[in-house]
Structures are given as C-alpha cells and as structure tokens.
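[User]
Um, tokens okay?
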Amino acid sequence: MSSQTTTADTAPVPDLTSGSTAGPAFGTAQEGPLITDKRLRLFVYLIMMCAVFMSMMDVQIVSTALPTIVGDFGTLEGFSWITSAYLLTSSAVMPLYGKLGDLFGRKYVLLAVIALFVGGSIACAAATTMETLIAARVLQALGGGGVMVTVFSVNADIFSPRERAKYQSYTSLVLMLAGTTGPTAGGFMTEHFGWRSIFLINVPIGVLVIIGLALLLPYRRPSRVPKIDIAGSITLAATIACLVLWADSPSLFGSITAPESLTVIGIGILCLLLWILAEKRAVEPVIPLSLFQNRTIVLLLIVSMAGGSMGIGLGNYYALYLQSGLGLSPSLAGLFFIPLTAGIAAGSLSAGRLIFRTGHYKYFAVASTSVSALALLALAFFSEVVSLPVIALFMFLQGMGTGIGQQVPILGIQNAAPRKDVGAATGLTTLSRIGAASVAISLYGTLITYVVTMAAGSVPGISNLASLTPEQIAALPETSRHLVNTVYVDALHPVFLVAAGIGICGCIAGLCVQNRRLDSLSN
C-alpha cells in the first residue's frame, strides 16, 4: 500500500494496522516520513539500538575469548579466520541488504537479518571444531551484515541529515555500552562458563528485538518494481572474497606471490570486471556505478576504509596484545576496552553534536584519522614493561579518534547520494568500513603469524607458541613467560605501524573532501 500525500499541517499518525505511513514531503513530494509520531519514532529507535547493541557486542565479546578459543583448538591461523570469516561474509551481503531495503521495504529485511543472526549465534555455541565454528560465524554474519545497514537506512527514512548526526551520536552511547560490556563480559564468561556461553547471550536480546519491531515498526511498500541484481551481488561477493583470501594468502599458501595467491587475485580482478559489466546492464544495480562519479563519496569511502582498518580491524589484536603480550588475564584485559570504548563515545558524542549545530563534517574526518594514527604510532614503540595506565591512555585516544569519525562517512555519503539510492549508498559505506577491516585483520594476522612462527624454538621447552592460551602463558616460569610476552609484543609492533600508515592515508583523503554542509531537510 503506497503512502498517502498530505500537507504538513494535517499529517496523520502512522496507521500501524494497515502498515502504511503518511506525512508531509520528507524526501520527495510523494513520500512522507516513515513515522510521524515522535514518541513512536523514539521508541522504535530505541528498539533498533538494541539490535545494534546485540550485533556490536558480539564483535567485542569474542575479542577477549579468542586467545582461549584458539588455544582450545590449537591453531593460531584460526585466530584471524574466526573474525575474518564473519567480516568477509557480512561485507559481501551488506550492499545486497541495502538494495533489498530500497526495493522491498526495510521492515521485513531487518526482521530477517536479526533472525539469521540469532540462529547463527546458536550454531556458534554448538560448534565442536574450528571449522564448524568458522562455518557458524558465516551463518551468523549473513544476518549481522544486514543489521547496521538496515538500521542506518531506517534512520535515513525517519530523520533529516542534521537530526541523523544527533541521533547517531546517541548511537555511540550504545556502542560504548556494547564495547564496555562485550570484552568484560567475554573475559568473565570465558573464565567461569566457557567460551561457548558468549554466543548464547545474543538469543534473548534478538528475540525481544524481533517481537518489538514486528509490532511497532511501520512497513512502507516501495513504489519501484523489485528487480534483484543477482549477477552484481554474486560477482561483488566473489570480488571481496578473493581480496580477503589474497590478504590471508601467506598463512594459506605461504606467500602473497605464491602461484595459488596470484591465481586468487587474478580471479578477483576478473570478478571485479564482471561486476562492473553487470552493474552497467542491471536495471536496479546492487551498487549504482554513478555513486563512484561523486568525488565526495569516493573520498569519504577512503576515510571509511581507514576508520574500519584502525577501529574494527585492531579490536581482536588489542586482546592478543594485552593477554599474550602484556600477560593480563582475560578479565583484566577486558577492562582495558573501557577506555577504548569511552573514547569512542566521547569522540562520537562531541562530533555528533557539533555536526548537528554547524552542518560541517570535513574536519572531523581529518581529526579522527590523524588522532588514531598518532596513538597507534605511540603503541608501536612500547615494550612489554610499559606502564598499564599509559596503555589505557593511548587506547582512549585511539578510541576517541575512531569515535570522532565514526559517523562522518555515512552522514556525508547519505547526504551526497540520491534519495532513491540511500540504501545502496549506506550499504556501500558500511561495506567499505567492514570490508577494509576484514582485509586488515587478515594482513595483521599474517604479520603476527610470521613473527611468532619465526620465533619458534626461541623459548626453551615450548615448540608451538600458538598453542598456548593466556592461562598457560601465565603458568610458565618467569623467564619463559617473559620471552613469550616479548615475542607477542614484537609481533604486534608492525601491526600498529601498518595501521598508523593506513590512518595517514585516510587523513589525506579527509583533507581533500570539500567542506560542504549537511542539509536541514532530507535530500
């Protein structure tokens, strides 16, 4: 049922029975706001924040459990793949979910992705091997990849660009809560209930969110004829998969120049060319190529990729740094994520309010990437005997840099994209951030695996450093424990340096963005 057209003075409250919404022109003369009642809008927003909390907490809660999971299964290579498999899959499906929301309406897409995420969480808890856990993470990611995309797209339906800056700054509070609760709860639950329990926490939250959105979120049937770009979706997913596999090729094939690695990247280039051809011919391309003709969008995508590589890509490796490098317990390491996420919240809240007041966002992109890069450069030169409060301070600064720029790319790109392609543009933005994080995680894992492997035999009595859990490292004699800690700290230093270099590239892109203002009304 299509939306009615009314004047602003007579806009009715959404009709939840029929599923239609009516209201004044919000983006075009034919469409009104998805929800006109302010109280209902706020309540729906809060329910969606529960979905965001669930998906973000899952990423964070796994981080402090990963060293124990890897030690349990006895393979360091699986460390990166537990996360990479999730990010790879979620990256591949993000543009598809954005487009599906544009074509079919966002309500049922959001309900479907949450249900998939909950089912995947149950499968993760039931995994018995590293392979089954990775497969379960893929299933979980099929849902998780659509949560943020669809939620941000719904925000674009109910809030103007300026309002989005304010409400997305409130989202940072949810991210802070998830970031604080996740690692701390992950460490506590891993120690007391086993690592499988960290996945089951998603189930009750997901069920309540599904019920709330099913009852309260209005459904708007798009006027466009649904035509799914199957060829574009498949070739894009294959391109991303090849890129991540190539980044992880040193651990898979021994070198990025090995014949298998070159074959993977060659297939990836072919898939990229086929994707471009598919998008040119598609009636409703999963990602319209016209988006890449906009200079602002391209530059903000680079900023988004830099932010994802530093903010998301390093999350799990902080846990490895704190536990295997500095010798902290999972619970204590989880506490160090509090200053990190507090920095994210502080940066996002302050930036969101300033963007809401001024409408400008360029300099926040520059500040975010530069602050994060400087903090990572400092971490790259610390030894294993560095003061813990100093580590906490620089994790706070890195978090603040991440928080400042957390919403800049999506706000700027949604503002620059045509309204009919807001969902696809949102999916592309989230893809750039998560996809870059996925590639970065593989690169970081390759660097760490190389250093740890080269150090094999350097610790007397230990032939496989990768098989040691944090508890086993803590139980070693002092001399051996110090040697193991040194190996892991040395392995993390090049990771921080590479991440800082990526941040500098993002800073340069931010400087090149035109200093435009966000509209006070929907575009």
About this structure: The first helix runs from residue 38 to 63.
